């Protein structure tokens, strides 16, 4: 067994061929999505390949950001992108070797910190044993397991109130749903996203990320569902698709249209579409333990909880003396450490 470190661009076909063979793999580990994020964050997309002879037995994709403090390693980066070890046949010895190699590589290359983010659909015990973390941050992965096409009628009954009522109200309001990837759809998605996030004091994604999606991600791996009322867009949802899992990525709604429940109908329609196309998991993404309202919103869509963790090694203790704002600005999209550890 030996481990090789390669750029994703040079090994894109080998990476994608291996990753698609693991049923729990997510789009974040594909060459296209990694290329999108690396381009957007001005980072390097790389991957560790573990081989037995000439056969790849495991991979660990990661991104590196060279910033004003030095290098930061993430597997993976950008809005909770899950990373870590990917295997077709589980082997904890191999996985542990890759985890240890990742942190050793980061330290050898002079990184200030390195973080592995586990996959909610995979066991995390190997990271507990081999990461030797300085910090561990928890999230709750919430996933709706979609019924098979033959049982699609069971979908609505898997939701808790008020979701079925929300869906029926949107239909009664005359909301219609369509798919789209046009520039006008991207424009609506982005401008409404900025308004929604600004209204709650959050940090919105940048326009360049949305504009670059078609250049990096195959058309079959992303969609925008748009809700219209009287011929005008009132809500939209950006989804990414890979293997058996749909990623709920960017939902938006015009403030004056919230009472129409248009987003609920988008989700229901998109779930039906996913079932028809053979997808089994709808990943709502991670929820912080403190986000009770967000957790309850997702839970009513029939979700199952899957905890996952950020395992961080800190190689430069001065990192803790920095401010939250300078880390956010200097390493946009990268996880350095839990902000609760600043000043500790």
Automatic annotation (TrEMBL):
SUPFAM superfamilies: Acyl-CoA N-acyltransferases (Nat)
Gene Ontology BP term (one): cell wall organization
Record InterPro entries: Acyl_CoA_acyltransferase, BioF2-like_GNAT_dom, FEMABX, PG_Glycine_Bridge_Synth
Keyword Repressor attributed: no
Any one GO molecular function term: aminoacyltransferase activity
Keywords in alphabetical order: Acyltransferase, Cell shape, Cell wall biogenesis/degradation, Peptidoglycan synthesis, Transferase
Gene3D superfamilies the UniProt entry points to: 3.40.630.30
BioF2-like acetyltransferase domain residues: 165-299
Similarity section: Belongs to the FemABX family.
PANTHER family noted in UniProt: LIPID II:GLYCINE GLYCYLTRANSFERASE
Protein name: Acetyltransferase (GNAT) domain-containing protein
Organism placement in taxonomy: Bacteria, Pseudomonadati, Pseudomonadota, Gammaproteobacteria, Pseudomonadales
């Amino acid at each position: 067994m030996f481990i090789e470190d390669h750029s994703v661009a040079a090994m894109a076909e080998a990476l994608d061929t291996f990753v698609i063979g693991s049923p729990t793999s997510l789009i974040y580990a594909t060459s296209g999505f990694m290329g999108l994020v690396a381009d957007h964050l001005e980072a390097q997309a790389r991957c560790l390949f573990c081989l037995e002879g000439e056969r790849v037995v495991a991979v660990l994709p990661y991104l590196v950001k060279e910033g004003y403090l030095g290098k930061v390693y993430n597997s993976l980066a950008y809005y909770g992108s899950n990373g870590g070890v990917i295997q077709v046949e589980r082997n904890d010895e191999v996985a542990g070797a890759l985890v240890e190699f990742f942190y050793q590589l980061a330290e050898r290359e002079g990184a200030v910190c390195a973080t592995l983010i586990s996959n909610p659909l995979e066991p995390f015990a190997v990271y507990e044993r081999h990461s030797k973390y300085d910090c561990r941050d928890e999230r709750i992965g919430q996933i709706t397991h979609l019924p098979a096409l033959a049982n699609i009628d069971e979908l609505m009954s898997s939701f808790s109130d008020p979701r079925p009522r929300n869906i029926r109200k949107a239909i009664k309001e005359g909301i219609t749903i369509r798919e789209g990837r046009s520039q006008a759809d991207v424009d609506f998605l982005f401008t409404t996203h900025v308004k929604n996030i600004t209204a709650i004091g959050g940090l919105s994604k940048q326009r360049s990320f949305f504009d670059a999606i078609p250049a990096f991600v195959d058309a079959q791996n992303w969609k925008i569902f748009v809700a219209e009322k009287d011929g005008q867009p009132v809500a939209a949802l950006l989804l990414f698709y890979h293997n058996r899992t749909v990623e709920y990525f960017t939902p938006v709604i015009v403030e004056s249209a919230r009472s129409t429940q248009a987003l609920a109908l988008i989700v229901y329609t998109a779930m039906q579409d996913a079932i028809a196309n053979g997808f089994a998991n709808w990943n709502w993404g991670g929820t912080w333990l403190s986000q009770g309202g967000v957790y309850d919103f997702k839970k009513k869509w029939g979700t199952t909880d899957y905890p996952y963790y950020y395992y961080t090694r800190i190689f430069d203790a001065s990192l803790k003396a920095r401010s939250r704002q300078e880390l956010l600005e200097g390493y946009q999209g990268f996880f350095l450490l839990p902000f609760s550890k600043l000043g500790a």
